[in-house]
Write a structure and sequence with these properties.
The structure is a single chain. By secondary structure, the chain is α/β, with parallel strands linked by helices. It contains 14 helices and twelve strands. The strands form two sheets. Strands 1, 2, 3, 4, 7, 8, 9, 10, 11 and 12 form a ten-stranded mixed beta sheet that branches.
Length: about 400
């Protein structure tokens, strides 16, 4: 999730303005939209023109679809004895420069694996497709995360405009930036890795109507190769990074039994800061006799958190706004740490190696505003240096929560 104090102040100001207006008659009707999918049909909804490409992981229907797609990919595939690696990239706004640097440095060692699974949330969703395609896209990540400016990401709206719109800023610049790099040729490369090398690229968004996470199979979208698939691929990346209130939600047209509806998708970080795969998936795969996982293959998960894990405390002013700001910041931090704990327990249960990287206390550079180039360059350099030196991955998250 991309979030900072400046944004929170704007959002809280907006809430205050709404409260001051008070009279509902003065507030215009909401922006038009098609009806949301009925509660009982959420897991059955398909994107118009791009069917069967995502999973409602809170439903048996969604999990069964994921198992079915894994079975489909593994048909006629003889798994080798080579080690398997998974990569999970968290949210964190311009802190994504850390992941960009770490991956570039890791490539320089010659030891960076080809990940069987890559997942991303928020800024991690913007990085994940490039990380999935490997070191050839290291220069792209470096360029993006050392030269991006706020104007490349969003166009601010005035307070009154934001009050009566669906966000405080317009994210059209970010969509244009995504579209510049994610074109037809890019989709063909993703499709090849999915269909030929049987690798998964998953991105998480939040279905705000259903209040559920949604996991998108980006390789399956790419494999369709249609103009509609390209548009959806870009929109999913945008949706995963669209913070409610700051960026507009991404509206996605869907259908159930031929009837049209519309879903509102926002930042995947509203549900989780990072993920690997649904906990029940391994059990479901074991029950499927057509899918055999080799016991002699070493599996490792690499989780990159684009944040610190030991934030420095500071005295909070006894005023409403600072109290709310610090509380929200703490909630997001705690959610991120909780996600690491969940992934640790998941990997231990499934006999998968746990490897964690994060922005440690030895990085200290001024951060005056979001997407400040000097800050991103410094953080990129920090990550690259760590990666090139052979990053010492943390093997569990527990000791980080204990004061020495």
């Amino acid at each position: 999730m991309i979030i900072n104090d400046q944004f929170l102040r704007k959002l809280l100001t907006l809430i205050t303005l709404i409260s001051l207006i008070g009279c509902a008659a003065l507030i215009p009707d909401p922006l038009p939209r098609d009806p949301a999918v009925p509660k009982e049909s959420v897991s059955e909804a398909d994107v118009v023109g791009v069917k069967d490409v995502r999973y409602d992981i809170f439903s048996s229907h969604g999990i069964n679809d994921l198992v079915s797609h894994i079975r489909e990919l593994r048909k006629g595939y003889n798994q080798s004895k080579e080690d398997v690696a998974y990569l999970s990239i968290s949210g964190g706004g311009d802190n994504g420069a850390f992941t960009a640097g770490l991956l570039n440095g890791w490539s320089q060692t010659g030891n960076r694996p080809q990940f069987r699974l890559v997942t991303g949330i928020s800024t991690g969703a913007l990085i994940a497709p490039f990380a999935y395609l490997g070191k050839d896209y290291d220069p792209t990540l470096k360029k993006l995360y050392t030269s991006m400016k706020p104007s490349d990401i969003y166009r601010p709206r005035g307070r009154l405009e934001g009050l009566f719109a669906d966000s405080m800023a317009d994210s059209e610049p970010l969509y244009k930036l995504i579209s510049e790099y994610v074109d037809e040729e890019f989709l063909k490369k993703v499709a090849f890795e999915y269909e030929t090398n049987r690798r998964f690229l998953l991105i998480g968004t939040t279905n705000l109507d259903a209040k559920k996470p949604m996991i998108w199979n980006m390789g399956r979208i790419a494999a369709l190769g249609t103009p509609e698939a390209l548009t959806l691929f870009r929109k999913v990346m945008l949706a995963s990074a669209s913070i409610p209130g700051l960026f507009p939600p991404v509206m996605i047209d869907v259908e159930v039994n031929g009837k049209k509806y519309q879903e509102m998708h926002v930042d995947g970080g509203a549900n989780t800061q990072a993920f690997l795969y649904p906990p029940v998936l391994t059990e479901k795969l074991a029950e499927d006799r057509t899918i055999k996982l080799r016991d002699d293959v070493k599996r490792d998960a690499y989780i990159i958190r684009n944040a610190d894990l030991t934030p420095q405390g500071e005295e909070v002013r006894r005023r409403t706004l600072p109290i709310i700001l610090n509380t929200i910041t703490q909630l997001i931090h705690t959610q991120g740490v909780g996600d690491l704990y969940k992934m640790y327990l998941l990997t231990q249960n499934d006999k998968v190696g746990f490897n964690l990287a994060f922005i440690e206390d030895d990085f200290n550079f001024p951060h005056p505003e979001e997407f400040d180039n000097a800050y991103m360059q410094a953080l990129y350099d920090y990550g690259e240096k760590k990666g090139a030196a052979g990053y010492k991955w943390y093997k569990d998250p527990f000791h980080l929560a204990i004061e020495e």
